[in-house]
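ok, trying the design again with the full structure, not the truncated one.
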């Protein structure tokens, strides 16, 4: 993002604040590489509900009600391969809950495969 851009959730960011380099990083998913360190340290999983920001109150509440915080957060999951992002907090929490309830080894590798080969998407950016 350009200097002096307001710090907001990605889905609230304006596309004019994204640099060409930043757009490339997002499109290629290279911006996710630093999270692999969190996976290696055991703080995150490859598959699980994406972490949210501390100020996303509606999402915090919905996820709390649905037990989403009882599992380790992840880089990708059911919501990401279905283009569900944090701009729809209630629906996202519902999808996260569904993923947790149906979680097994087969789906773990399915989500990774689909993400690597183009089905996974990041949060939307406003135009």
């Amino acid at each position: 993002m350009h200097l002096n851009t307001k710090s907001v959730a990605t889905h609230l960011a304006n596309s004019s604040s994204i640099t060409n380099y930043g757009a490339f990083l997002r499109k290629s998913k290279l911006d996710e590489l630093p999270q692999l360190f969190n996976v290696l340290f055991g703080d995150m999983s490859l598959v699980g509900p994406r972490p949210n920001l501390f100020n996303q109150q509606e999402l915090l509440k919905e996820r709390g009600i649905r037990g989403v915080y009882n599992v380790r957060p992840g880089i990708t999951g059911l919501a990401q391969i279905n283009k569900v992002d944090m701009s729809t907090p209630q629906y996202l929490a519902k999808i996260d809950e569904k993923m947790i309830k149906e979680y097994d080894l087969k789906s773990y590798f399915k989500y990774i495969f689909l993400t690597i080969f183009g089905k996974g998407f990041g949060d939307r950016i406003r135009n």
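Keeping the full-length input from now on. The longest strand covers residues 45-47.
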